[in-house]
Sequence to fold (303 residues):
Amino acid sequence: MPRKPQSLTESLSTRSATLRRKAQSHRLLRWIGGRAAATLAVGAALSVGGVTEAFQGVHFLVLKDLDAVKIVEQKGSHTTVLANLGDDFAGNSFFKLSRSLPNSLVSHRNNLFNESWLPELSKPGMTAASQPSDPFHSEMQRINVAIRKEFFANAVPFGDIIHDKAQKYDVDPALVAAVVETESSFQTHARSGVGARGLMQLMPRTGRWMGATNLYNAEQNVDAGAKYLRYLNQRFDGNLSKTLAAYNAGEGNVRRYNGVPPFRETRSYVKRVMTRYEKRKQEIKQFDDQHGGGAMAEVMTLR
Fold:
């Protein structure tokens, strides 16, 4: 007598129970813990043939960003977040395992960094807003940039690189310089106890996301660091304290505490960067006052 086909629920339950029994007897799975084992079991169960038919009209999207792996159900125009896994073994295991599932059932998106996250308009802590485009204002803008570039080239270690990369990502170079000074005291081969590297003390994973292959290279490091500051500033709607806190403690912690986390190190870090940022802005203002008057007179004469 032929066996009665199992329902989808029965099939998933059977396979999950089998995997749980195997996990209990397997040293590695005992070591990684129940949550990770359960994640692997669910992923394996979903790979059963015929699941596509069972979920007719339903699609799943697995999203991976800096802090979490989300599983989103898409049914017509409706979306539902089914699970929000942390950026840990369980989350990463599920993301990797889900790549083996049929594309008709599961899509993937790696939301790490892309240019579309960079806002067109300036935010607090970024460069000044766009000026009118008439010849006079364009010339003044060019002169202001030249004056500040001269200041950074002469007054700040690695000032040329800091100014150029800040301009590239529309970040205030005074802010980038303050972060570099706080993070590494302008030491290109600085390395922290947890593995952060270079002038802006980026973790290797963050550096790779931002496009750097050698974090001890000053140009690559500052390029990646300025890009990361711009990304965080956009993520926190221009809130500079949150941006700096996320740079130090991680985006997830800032969101978890809805502000600067109550970590002594992070609060001290934000205060030190802000103090150096304000000091650097005052130095630039003094430099502008000393050199900008002659430039303004020259432009007025040209007019």
Q: What stands out?
A: The CA atoms of residues 199 and 218 lie 7 Å apart.
